Amino acid sequence: MDKRPQTVFFPDLAALRRGLVPLMFAISLAAGTARAEPLYASATVPLTDTPGAQATRLAQVAVAAELDRIETRDGYHRVALKAWARAGAEQVLFSLPGKRILAGQIPKQNIGLAEPLESLRDPETGITWNRVSIEGWIPQSAAEPRLDPIWAAAWELFAERCTACHQRRVPEHYTANQWRSLIKVMGPRTGLPKEEQMLILAFLQNHASDTIDQQPKAGARADTDARR
């Protein structure tokens, strides 16, 4: 047996630290910028300050609005609604700047709860749009992890009720704002409750000529094309 003393090599700790620092920074950065899990409101629903039936309403979330899920407990999701408001009209939130696709509404007394995220000025209209975020709780039953079932329900209503007086219109033949004006006139003629009219409107606006390419789920357009 070789009893000669063995040479032990220790790592260069300084070099090791130099390598670990950028690695740890990269991991931290990736964790901080990770996309929150998206949810979609399956109905118009109150956004409340706590989970439970006795909670205080902070805002209202529109059907099909996209939400970021923060946590889930006791049958409720804690979510963040991030949407755009026209400067000077902060109570009404839209999914996209310049597109009147309703995402939610905030009572005047709660506007201060909305955290500012970014602003942009429309060069064509001169209007400033502010993106804000407001957090709260909604029932688990009022949200879906994908848009497909929401759009399927909307398409069924649209196909059934919007052909009684005229040939069915193709969603992509109009802009999102044009659909809002059209449904304002045609919606009451369908005999549908206001909530179902809003569901149809959300579907049409999100599949309009100026929004279809911004759909978060590629399958939604394919499903629509297949049903025509």
TrEMBL record:
Signal peptide span: 1-36
Q: What InterPro entries has UniProt attached to this entry?
A: Cyt_c-like_dom_sf
Keywords for this protein? Signal
Top-level division of the source organism's lineage = Bacteria
Entry annotated with the keyword Cell wall biogenesis/degradation: no
Q: Which molecular-function annotation in GO is an example for this chain?
A: heme binding
| Protein name, entry field | Trimethylamine-N-oxide reductase (Cytochrome c), cytochrome c-type subunit TorC
Q: Which organism is it from?
A: Aliiruegeria lutimaris
